[in-house]
Amino acid sequence: MKTRLLIGALAVIGLGAVDNALAHAVTSGDKGYIQEITGVHFIPFLYLGAKHMVTGYDHILFLLGVVFFLYGMRQIAVYVSLFAIGHSITMLAGVYFNFGINSYIIDAIIGFSVIYKALDNLGAFPLWFGTQPSRKVSTAIFGLLHGFGLASRIIDYEIAEDGLFSNLVAFNIGVEVGQLLALAAILLVMTRWRASRSFARHAYTANVLLMSAGFALMGLQITGFFVA
Fold first, then answer.
1. pLDDT of residue 66
2. What pLDDT is recorded for position 38?
3. What does the DSSP 8-state code read for residue 99?
């Protein structure tokens, strides 16, 4: 019963990701508020950063894939830190220098990151290519790419130049807070599931669902790019 509930939860997250894929832009209320203010507003930007990460199904799905087979807290901390450092660099640099990537393209790439991680968890790369790419390097690279996705969101806010750097730092801190909250929830569920004998039997199915959600995200963003 617990296993079915866990697999069902993954499916719901995947469906939520699909439903959210083309609505992954800034909400009109948030955008209107940000456009009206100038100067340093630490708390609002902290909230917006946390909100984006917690409601960003693509980021959460990638995080789930990253920690799926990680057990030690030190090991988890290394990979999550690589991801956090990567997306922090490109988010801050992208917004500060006003360099963004088309939101459909970058979100399609983020969808691909979910596919890649699911395939990695399924052991596909040694089977297909005879070698295992560095998981730490791939996590850092995808962190950089996820950061461009965050940057495109912030650029959409059209933040005032006055107080820009401080507000960006606040947003980034919020993203990290949101990431820690999401990670805590993921680890809570994963720890309970790993303690059951069904984990080994259903880990494959869970990663197939994860990969399917990634394909759906990627496909919808590619479609959106050509339709928009």
1. 97
2. 80
3. -
pLDDT above 50 (res 151): yes
pTM of the prediction?
0.85
**Crossing angle of helices 135-157/164-194, nearest 10°?**
130
Q: Is 139 exposed, middle or buried (0-12, 13-18, 19+ CB in 10 A)?
A: buried
User: N- to C-terminal Cα distance for the chain?
Assistant: 43
pLDDT at residue number 158: 77
The alpha helices in the chain, defined as continuous H runs, are 2-21, 28-36, 42-55, 57-67, 73-96, 103-121, 124-129, 135-157, 164-194, 199-227
pLDDT value at residue 100 = 79
87, 143 contact by CB (below 8 A): yes
Cβ atoms of 155 and 95 within 8 Å: the answer is: yes
Of the candidates 228, 166, 206, 183, which has an alpha carbon nearest to the alpha carbon of residue 24? 228
Report yes or no: 174 and 53 within 8 Å, Cβ to Cβ.
yes
171-183 exposure pattern, b = at least 16 Cβ within 10 A, e = fewer: bbbbbbbbbeebb
